Amino acid sequence: MFGGDTAVTQSFSLLKDEGVDVAIMPIGAYQGYESLHCTPEQALQMATAMHAKYIVPMHCLTFPQSNEPASEPILRLVRAVSQYSSQLSMLTIGETFSMVDELVLTQHRTLTKH
Q1: 7-39: buried (b, 16+ CB within 10 Å) or exposed (e) per residue?
Q2: Residues 6 or more apart from 40 whose CB is under 8 A from it?
Q3: At a CB cut-off of 8 Å and minimum separation 6, what does 83 contact?
Q4: pTM exceeding 0.85
Q5: Which of 3, 5, 56, 50 is nearest to 30 (CA)?
Q6: Model confidence at 31: pLDDT above 80
Q7: What are the tens digits of pLDDT across the range 44-62?
């Protein structure tokens, strides 16, 4: 699920039964733009509301987009994640993420049930 530019909303909770594996959520550019962009904590709340297994942060660590320091969104995200069910992934630019092992295991379980 790609969150795009979003402020905090309950709309993502409508996806909770869809099996969201990865939520790409904006976590930066909030200071002074609270009506347009969510905070890191709000991104975690929305990812948890949709039962996303992983959250991949965006709108951070590239260039100044608002008044918060460049490293603040990631630091806030890392500090808050233990309170939520979604796991963090891809916290640095250039990092890769793969769910292949998890998908193979899930497919194996499905095939062996029949």
Answers
A1: ebeeebeebeeeebebbbbbbbbbeebeeebbb
A2: 27, 28, 57, 73, 74, 76, 77, 80
A3: 44
A4: no
A5: 5
A6: yes
A7: 999 999 999 999 998 887 7
Backbone angles phi, psi at 55, to 5 degrees: -120, 130
Dig out the tokens for 15 from the structure: 């996806």
Q: Is 103 or 8 the better-scoring residue by pLDDT? A: 8
| Type of residue found at 111 | L
Calpha distance 110→89 (Å, rounded): 26
Strand partners, 25: 57
